[in-house]
Design goal:
heterodimer, A: about 110 residues, mainly beta, six-stranded mixed β-sheet, four-stranded antiparallel β-sheet, globular, B: about 110 residues, seven-stranded mixed β-sheet
Chain lengths: ~110, ~110
Amino acid sequence: AQSVAQPEDQVNVAEGNPLTVKCTYSVSGNPYLFWYVQYPNRGLQFLLKYITGDNLVKGSYGFEAEFNKSQTSFHLKKPSALVSDSALYFCAVRDIPGFQKLVFGTGTRLLVSP
Amino acid sequence: GAGVSQSPSNKVTEKGKDVELRCDPISGHTALYWYRQSLGQGLEFLIYFQGNSAPDKSGLPSDRFSAERTGGSVSTLTIQRTQQEDSAVYLCASSLRFGDYEQYFGPGTRLTVT
């Protein structure tokens, strides 16, 4: 079965510094990978996806993610963190054979301090 | 509205009672999904609909859980004889069409079984 792992429960970063939220995947076949963000008391919001093409994917709110096949990773990055980026971030992968279903990681809480 | 809506936003029920959770997807979205988010865990897939049919019911935790979708729009998730372990946030998402993997999530229904 497809799966993703988010090794960090929480990431702390100072405002203005670059941030990285880690995700590794395990899939059979080509990976379809996603990042979602969940702000307090709000639903999940789509950030970006990797289907094929360039390994660096750009998404919403200045986020980007780098697909690395050799390391089976899909880390989320942002060059300069904002306090408003503080939220819960989920990595997800398309499941097979039920390929309409997303399999989510356990989430990483990002805390950006002023 | 522009987004996925869910009702109620919060539901407190006694153990053994039945509950119904409602999801209104984005207009025109043919695929609809239900997930469950439990405290300390990631998102757990429950069921998805393509139109009014549910080709994948593998995620429903028990036969106390059922879901339907009528008119290709509104969906209802029903939990019969609720148990305390059913307490969670139930999230609904929709996507434009089959094979479109960008899922848009609603704000969720927080269910508490006492």
